Amino acid sequence: MKLINELTHSLMNHLKWHKSRITCAAQILQSLIINRTVGLPHLATGFKNKATPESNYRRIKRFFAFNFDLSSIIFIVLSLFDFPKGLELIMDRTNWKLGKANINILFISITYLGIGIPILWFTMDKGGNSNADERIGLLKKVISKIGKDRIKSFVADREFIGKKWLNFLYQQKIPFVIRVRNDAKLGGFLPANLLYRKLKNGKKLVANEKIMLWGLMLYISASRSLDGELMLLVSNYKFENPQAIYKKRWEIEVMFQCLKGRGFNLEATHITDPHKIDRLIFMLGIAFCWMYKIGEIKNCLKPIEIKKHGRKAKSLFRYGFDEIRRMLNDLRRYCKCLYKLISVLCNCRRERYE
After folding, report:
1. Are residues 239 and 282 in the same domain?
2. 276-288 pLDDT per residue, tens
3. What three-state secondary structure class fits 286?
4. Given pLDDT bands bounded at 50, 70 and 90, which one contains residue 353?
5. Is residue 214 domain-shared with residue 105, that is, in the same domain?
6. Among 253, 283, 314, which residue terminates a domain?
7. Are residues 285 and 239 in the same domain?
8. DSSP states along 189-202
9. Residue 99 burial (CB < 10 Å; 0-12/13-18/19+)?
10. For 78-88, how does the pLDDT look when each residue is reduced to its tens digit (9 = 90+)?
11. Choosing a second label site near 193 at 20 to 30 A (CA), which of 60, 173, 308, 333?
12. Full residue range of the structural domain in which residue 196 is found
């Protein structure tokens, strides 16, 4: 129980809940890491207490029925990582089906050392793409916590377009780089793929040409991959290299992989209630950030091996994940070391960001 007490103490620095709920969160956190799955029956067997798995299972269900402010994770993230003054945000969604139910989650993350760090999300009670109001509502919550002046760039794929949405970004003066469909009508009548049909494979234009799109004066940059795919990016600012900014969109895909098959197997959940999924991801977000931070610290002490092909043997997330799981599975041997890793969460100073 001393382990849970240490985790509870660390989480109390950030979460203004009743102590019993924070203790339950600490139990869920360490069980997520040990079991590498979000299945509630598995989580219940991982609790370090004298209660039966059935009792722990009911306790977990009550926890995910508890309503709390998801945006409180933003303060944890900002205090845990050394982000630059200007933050680069990415919006994307991940989705899968559970029977007839659509699990469809819209995320905003911060780019950081090749991966997206989750700061807020919204589980939609539908399939398909989000609408402008849903995106605007999510981004407004982020802005209310970090301030729009700190947003250096905002990146999204071509499904996140539309007049109302782009007008919001434009009016709020949020610097964005968003991919548009190749048939987008520039100036209201000319399809973009016709305008750039002579662009050769492997070539790009970083000219930031001015165009009119949905009544907005924007900059467009075009490039064509070696296999002939045309990529069109629009922005409201004249970025020096918008293609390089847009490439960072892949970092949120890496984050999805860590939350799913390479980490916590998010798709194994049988929860379909959108609000409960949001709360589950809140716990995954804390676990993910903790694992990544430990991997970052350990890499400074003992750098990850570089393979012959020039890539690292494992990611920073996996490096931290393996380290903490190893210690949790052998508490007698690594108890003191584990308390030092827990102190990483404890030493984060929330008050700097409020």
Report:
1. no
2. 999 999 999 999 9
3. helix
4. very low
5. yes
6. 253
7. no
8. TEEHHHHTTTPPTT
9. exposed
10. 999 999 999 99
11. 173
12. 72-253
Residues 6+ apart with CB under 8 A from 168: 132, 136, 139
**pLDDT tens per residue across span 201-228:** 655 665 688 888 888 899 988 887 777 7
- Cβ proximity of 151 and 86 under 8 Å: yes
The confidence score (pLDDT) of residue 27 equals: 95
Establish how many alpha carbons lie within 13 A of residue 113's alpha carbon, considering only the half-sphere containing its beta carbon. Answer: 12
d(CA 132, CA 101): 23
**Number of domains observed in the structure of the chain:** 2
Question: Using the 8-state DSSP alphabet, how is residue 330 labeled?
Answer: T
Structure tokens at 307: 């393979």
**Do 173 and 151 belong to one domain?**
yes
- DSSP secondary structure string, 165-232? HHHHHHHTT--EEEEE-TT-EETTTEEHHHHTTTPPTT-EEEEEEEEEETTEEEEEEEEE-TT--EEE
Question: What span, in angstroms and rounded, lies between the C-alpha atoms of 303 and 296?
Answer: 9
Which residue, of 193, 221, 253, is where some domain finishes? 253
Both tokens of 40, joined, read 């509630």
